[in-house]
What does this fold into?
Amino acid sequence: MKNIRLVAFLFYLTMICGLSHAQNIKLLNGVKFELPFLELRGGLELNPLVIKDSKYNYGVAFNSDHWYKAFPVVFKAGNLSTEGSLSRLNNPEFSQVASSTGLSNARTVSFFEVSLPQKDSFSKAQALFVQAGYKAQKLKKTDMNFFYDGKTPVGSFDLVYNPSKAFDIGFCFTGGVFQNERKESTAWFLEAPGFHSGKIFCWNAQISFLSKNYKTVLLANIYESPFGKFNSCWRWENQLLFKKAGFIFDVFYNPIQNLITSSGKQLSPLLQLRYGCNFEAAGFTAGASSLLNINLHKNMHNLKNECGIKYSGKIYRGEFILAATVNIQNISQEYKIDFPNASIQNSNSVALGEFKLELNPKLYFERGSSGKVDLRGVIGCNGGYDGAVKLDLKTQVEITRKKRKFSAGLGVQKQIKWFTLDFRIDVGI
It folds into this structure.
């Protein structure tokens, strides 16, 4: 109890010293009521500096799995978040290099997933979600899903079949009718032809083969074009796993100029190759990975690289990551190489019983258009207490050549039978 009071007292002093210079203050409140078949959530954000900026969210979930395990039915409503197959449909490209120390994490089909809002999530519209499933000895998963947020109806079918102990076969089909908004432009020259607003049908299909040592997932995305035809892009992920090593090789291919996805994003013709490997020994994991972006209609390409080492022990966990991007440009049969950005990231975590301390220094390098290199340093120092009352203290300092930023936050969580109460205050200076 004395340690809890000390943490709270130190944070109180930090807040008192910073409130007079605060540019942003947020008060977050959350409540969760949970039973085996029912879950209710609610969140509220208040800004004492601007009262009218207050936000709220809510969510409710019902699951019949408590009574009927063979035929589960799930119902969710509220400010719901979608993930998985719909995210792959909205943004099919590889957005970043694979984690160099996490390549051994098993891959599988990205199924259609819907979750209730967190206490700090306020950007999602109100929506409904219904799922009906069936489970049998060799059918690990058979689900029919329907999602509607007032604008976009989305349906999905998920399947995991286990014909033998040696491997699983997974399948997922997701499709919906999406609003395609016309984007106005005042430019006299447009790379993409204009089109009118309307609704388009988009869908994707995934199939996977998952064994102990080899896992592969093939994804096909199909998009209806505003000009009356259907376009496609493809994604193939492969993973080899051994006792102390992991290897990946992934491919994304889009041959279509100005392909419009279900989220309205326009993609250029692109070939992506993502590859990497890591090795584990005596609690250490070391690895390297890269993402090569080959622009099929322009002479500008880039290669993102990452290497790192991680240690996981009972008391201490640490990770050190080096990352850099290389731009390659072909001009008149001559190659120009540039290094636009790089970073050095370190994370350290110490667990002492119910207490946890973290120190996360990061340094970013970015070359501007003038050729000058800008530096940005970020240092995060966090603490936590996982007892009857959970405490979470986070502080961060960001330093650049022109400005300084400081932020701090304290979270308190208490569970009382079926209720979980959350409170958090964040201050930015």
User: Anything to note?
Assistant: Helices lie at 2-19, 85-90. The longest helix spans residues 2-19. Residues 186-190 have pLDDT under 50 and may be disordered.
